[in-house]
Amino acid sequence: MSVETATAAASGANATEKFRLNKSVGAQVSAERVNQLASRAIKALVDTVTEEKVTYDEYNALKAWLIRVGEDGEWPLFLDVWIEHAVEEVANADREGSKGTIEGPYYVPGSPVLQSPATLPQREDEAGTPLLFQGRVTNVNGEALPGAHVEIWHADDAGFYSQFAPGIPEWNLRGTVVADDQGFYQINTLQPAPYQIPTDGACGQLISAAGWHAWRPAHLHLKVSAPEHQLITTQLYFTSDEHLSDDIASAVKPELILDPKPTADGKGREVSYDFVLAPGTAE
Ligand code: MBD
Ligand code: FE
Q1: Which residue's C-alpha comes closest to atom 4 of ligand 1?
Q2: Which ligand approaches the C-alpha of residue 174 most closely?
Q3: Domain spans of the chain?
Q4: Separation of 220 CA from ligand 1 center, angstroms?
Q5: What is the mean pLDDT of residues 54-70?
Q6: Residue 228 Cα, ligand 1 centroid: separation in angstroms?
C-alpha cells in the first residue's frame, strides 16, 4: 500500500473533478451580458497594469501563476476563497430568514440520510472534542418545518475533508440529517479544527508571495432545505477562534458565530442554532 499525503494538487484535482460532476453550467448567458462582464473584468486588470506600471517580469509571473492554478486544479479553491463571498452576498441580499455564506470547494451532494437524532459517520478512533449541535428549522413565521433536511459537512480534527484528503472514509463527517416532526434536529459530531488552505499549490504560492496567511476559522458547513422554501447554504463558526476577524475567504458574519457550552458529562460541548427558511423554491 502506498502512503498518500494530502497535497494541494491531489485535493485540487478532486475539487475540479467534483465541480465538473456536480455543477453543470445552467442558464445560457446572453452576448450582451458576457460583453458587459468580460469587458469590465478585463478593464479592471488593464487599469491595474497601467496604474501600477506593471513590468514584463511581473506580467510573466502572473502568466506562469495562472498556468499553475490550472495545473494544480486550484481554480475552485481560488475562486471560492477570494471571489465567492461577493457572489453570495449579491445572490442573497434580499432573502429573509437565516444568514448564509459561501459553499466553498468541498461540498459533495448525496451524503448518507440520517434521521434526527443522528451521529455523523466517523472513524472508530475519530479524534476531537465531541460536539452536540442541535436546533429547530422553521419558516419566517416561526412555524416548524417537519422533515427539513440539515445537510452538514466539515473538516476533521486535523483540518481535512473526506473525499478531498486521502485515506479518510468516503462520507466521514458528512450527512443529511432529517429533522423530526416538529422541525427539531440533533447532530452528534466532533469539533472541527481551524483550516489552513493547501500551502503547497498555486494558491499557497500566492499567499506566501504576498505575505498573507492561509487560515480559515474552524467551521461547520451546512445546507438547510425544506419543500417550498429557499435552500440556505451557510457556515457556522466558534466564538474566540483567532481567525474570525481575518478569514482568508471573507466568509464570517456576526450571525454565524456559535458559543458552545460544556456538556453535563464534561466530555464534550453542545450548542443550539435555529434555521429560518424563506418561502420559495430550492435555488
Ligand atoms: C474550505 O474548507 C472552505 O470552506 C473554503 C471556503 C475554502 C477552502 C477550504
Ligand atoms: Fe470548509
Answers
A1: 104
A2: 2
A3: 1-283
A4: 10
A5: 98
A6: 29
Q: CB under 8 Å to 71, separation ≥6 — which residues?
A: 9, 202
- Tell whether ligand 1 has an atom less than 6 A from the beta carbon of residue 104: yes
Q: Which single residue is written with the C-alpha cell 486550484?
A: 74
DSSP 110-167: -PPEEESSEE----TT--S-EEEEEEEEEETTS-B-TT-EEEEEE--TTS--TTTSTT
> Are residues 19 and 76 in contact, defined by beta-carbon separation less than 8 angstroms?
yes
**Ligand 1 binding pocket mutation candidate from 18, 75, 81 (most atoms within 8 A of CB):** 81
Question: 216 CB less than 6 Å from ligand 1?
Answer: yes
| 283 has a pLDDT exceeding 90 | no
CB atoms under 10 Å from CB of 166, counted, come to 15
Q: Which grid coordinates belong to 152? A: 452538514
Specify the DSSP class assigned to residue 109: S
Residue nearest to atom 3 of ligand 1 (CA): 104
pLDDT tens digits along 106-164: 999 999 999 999 999 999 999 999 999 999 999 999 999 999 999 999 999 999 999 99
Residue 57 CA, ligand 2 centroid: distance in Å: 35
Could you read off the pLDDT of 31-54 as tens digits, one per residue?
999 999 999 999 999 999 999 999
End-to-end CA distance of the chain: 43
Per residue, the 3-state secondary structure of 151-165, as one string, reads EEEECCCCCCCCCCC
pLDDT tens per residue across span 203-261: 999 999 999 999 999 999 999 999 999 999 999 999 989 999 999 999 999 999 999 99
CATH classification for the domain delimited by 1-283, as one of 2.60.130.10, 3.40.50.10300, 2.60.40.10, 3.90.1720.10: 2.60.130.10
The pLDDT, as a whole number, for residue 27 is 72
